[in-house]
Amino acid sequence: MTRRHPDTEHETSRPRRWLAPLVATGTAITTGLLVSGLVSALAAYFVRRVLTPERLKPDDTEVLSVGPGTVTIRATDETVARGRFGLRLAGGTSHARLGEVLRADGPTVTRELVDVDGPMKVGPARWNPYYLAGEPTRALGLPHEDVVLEGDVGPLPAWVVPPSEDVPTADVWAVLVHGRGATREECLRALPVLHRLGVTAVVPSYRNDADAPALPGGRYHLGDTEWADVEHAIRLALRRGAKGVVLFGWSMGGAIVLQLLSRSRLQHVVRGAVLDAPVVSWADVLDHQARVNRIPVWVARLGLELLSGRQADRLFGVEGPVELERFDWVARANELRHRMLVVHSDDDEFVPSGPSRALAQARPDLVRLVSFRGARHCQEWNVDPARWEREVASWLREVLGVGR
Predict the structure, then answer these.
(1) How far is CA 71 from CA 63, 107, 263, 354, in A?
(2) Do 249 and 358 fall within a single domain?
(3) Phi, psi at 131, each rounded to 5°
(4) Which segments cross the bilayer (predicted)?
């Protein structure tokens, strides 16, 4: 009877000793790949949230009681903020305009009730950060024309708001661009000052807006493609006799304007730009949002790398890679050729004002920064509308010579 050598016992039931390092290495690689995949998925999910339009906007507060000139609602970070705001009621069929906070008491806040268009009832409501609602005629009493721009992606609805008949009509028109997840209503606040200065305004929609064509992926491109839609509003102004245009942009609308100024064949007709809480650097915004959401900043940066990579269309539903270098305007400050007024709150919780400040420091010859305090994102006008309009009017008179 032949006995097995001790070193060969159970050789079919356990790995050979020389295989052990390879097994350990394989386990480590598998674990590493799994972790790497999870991190990449988190990074992609984080960036995808930024790229995805918020089409469904459910009620987010509740009217608890209505008194003489007051309304009490559920307290949230938004409803207790300084300034004047709006409240959509009855599924959006009614709208209230609210003034400053009169009393904040734990879970509730009582604000001044300035005006209401329609029934004012206790029940669910949706916060309106723009204060104004509807088209220009309804919201402001300013005559307007509904037009459709024939964009490359399909029909793009727009408003054309003529100037006051009491002042000379300027040969410069304004094109107003709203931000991410917003609507054209965000631009309503700028129309009265333009109307008084004799400036005709065009307020266009752009791809993936609720009232505009949705692309197959249905994702924002952070301004990388949207600028081409805004260019059609400039063409409309030129066809109707404008000799030049001034661009307005809020938040991502600012990023869209900056892309247009650097990439459009019509950049030469732009006399200047007014940017409110603009995205001057998407990397900075994503870094900030990662910290707010307790996600490592390097995960956000990985997401941006994936967005600029060859697999961007598959991972994010975009048309192609988004070149993030295009959006760092502090680094590209020497490329600017247009004068700008930048309005930004130092208390902006979504788009920090640091890059706007750095841009103004890098190009003091072109960029004038007007800083606010106590205003949340794109709410400088809400907190101090008189100052916002005064600063904008002063800059337009100085740079464009309008309203004189």
Answers:
(1) 7, 14, 48, 36
(2) yes
(3) 70, -45
(4) 20-47
